[in-house]
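Fig. S4 source data, part A: sequence.
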Amino acid sequence: MASLESITFQPHRSEIIDASVEWCPSQLGRPTKDLPQSFWSTGLPWREANLWLMLQATSKNVDIRTVQNKAFCLHAYAQWLEQTKTDWSDFPWRESDRCLFRFRKFLIQCRDNSTLAPSTASQRIRVAIQFYRWLSSSKLISTDWPMWKDRTIGIHFNDTFGFDRTL
C-alpha cells in the first residue's frame, strides 16, 4: 500500500570540487519542515508528486498544512492506483479507460455509498486535476488525448437593481 511520510527539506546546490559533484546547502532557500513525500508500496518514491509537493511548499505564502492536505489527497489517489493496478500516466483513447475518469467514478460511488463525504470527494479529484495540470504545463506528461474535459458553468441571478447577471 502506498505510504506518506514527512521530511525536513533543505535546499541544496551542486558544486564541482576536485572534478566531482558535491551537494552543498543553499543559502537561498529555507528549510521546510514536515514536507510530505509519497512512496509506492515497493518503497520507490512517486517522484513527480513529491516534486510538485516540494514546489508547493517552497513557494511564498503557502501554508505547509495546505500542502499536507494536498498530499493526503494524492496519497488516497496513489492507494486507489495500486489497488486497481492502474498506471498514473495512463490516458488511452477511450475516456472511460483513463485513470482520472475511473478515479472520479470511484469517488462518486464512495460518495453515493456514504463512505466518503461529498466535499472530500470533490477535494480529492480537484487536487488530482491540479497535479495533472502542473504535470502537463511542466511537460512531465504528454498525452495524445485530452486528460479531462473542462466545462464553463454560468450562474444567473438578478442584481440589486433587477438586472439579469451571469457569474
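Fig. S4 source data, part B ends here. The beta strands are 3-9, 12-17, 20-25, 32-39, 156-158, 164-166.
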